[in-house]
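U., I forgot to send this yesterday:
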Amino acid sequence: MEDTLVTSVGIIETFAGNGKSRSTGDGKIATKAGIPLPIGLAVDPAGHYLYFAESGSDRIRRVELSTGIIGHVAGIGETCYSGDGGPAAEAGLYLPLDVAFDSQGELYICDSGSNRIRKIDMKTGIIDTVVGTGAFGFNGDGPALDVNLTYPSAIAFDTQDRLWIVDAQAHRIRVYDPTSKELTTIAGTWSHEDDVRDSPLIAKNLVVLSGDAIGIDFSDDHGWLRPPCDTDGMDMSVFYDDGKTGPEVRFHDPTGIAVDGNDDVYIADKGSNRIRKIDKNTGIVTTVAGVCFYGYDGDGKAATQAMLNAPEAVIFDPRGHMYISDAMNHRVRRVDAETGIITTIAGNGESGYKDSGAMGGCGMAKFVKAVDKEMIKHGDGRVAVEAVVNSPAGLALDANGFLFMCERGENKIRRLKLY
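Result:
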């Protein structure tokens, strides 16, 4: 790949993105392209391309792994829903947040703002909706095109080619069977009482580009949207429900999903600062990383005794090791498949900016511009644990042992050689 570092194991580099917040550079080297707010990633089954949801431009783009050339796949760059039955490159997407491939190499898009899951036939380039009416609000299960989604945030396939969906603002985990074309809720429950309890944090994850602004921030006094997990904050006791079956369990602001080689399902439950597992055979939900309290209390301990801070994504490597985007700890962490011990593999815990007080207080909306903060060098070419990794989001692995990570707020995708 041209214009990039010769990467050794443990070294981090920028793989795509020049840091600008406008979508540019098709046909050029990806490190020279603008990729606004990349968030969800997937490598195609043939291992030729890295596909990603460019949420800031309402597009899907891809980078050829062998050459580093970036190209356009879907979306017209306008925030809208349009184009079913036609070429994906001419269709409108509305805040796409994730992408995933089935075993046949067809590409699925989590088109969050349109409350739909859409599919691109990679032989013809035609896009269609496969899940969702477009209406907002949970209305039960049934035929997938008759069922509502509520700002879905992530998708992943299991070995049976069933599509698992994080129905984020319905606080539920659902599965789409492409054979029966039915959508079924597997886990998660939510009530009016839950909405009332959650109401101080209703402006979750809203990011809107404006010129060169990073976004509009609806946040707490620390500048981030997360439920406090202490006696003075929101009561989190209702989320201490491990050992129950999926329909009895509450998820809080789930943002990521992965399926391991055994078809057990793992959820990045951002609001409760945990990674949770749904057992394939029993449907029982347990916590596999995190303790609910947000923070960072070090590595070298059991993941179930370690603190996470707003985890956004989770994936597995072929040996069963789990990787977590520990977003507000500004780290990517690894849980050993055999020991369950958690360690940091990327990020030194710094955000890469000196705080200038640009972020708003609780319930306030402010434009947050890159010029309002002083940037600190992020450290490409360094050992990954010594480099800055600012609020990592989506993760993906290729067959050559590269871990790709979205730095959404930096408008970049970086990669780390794991093995």
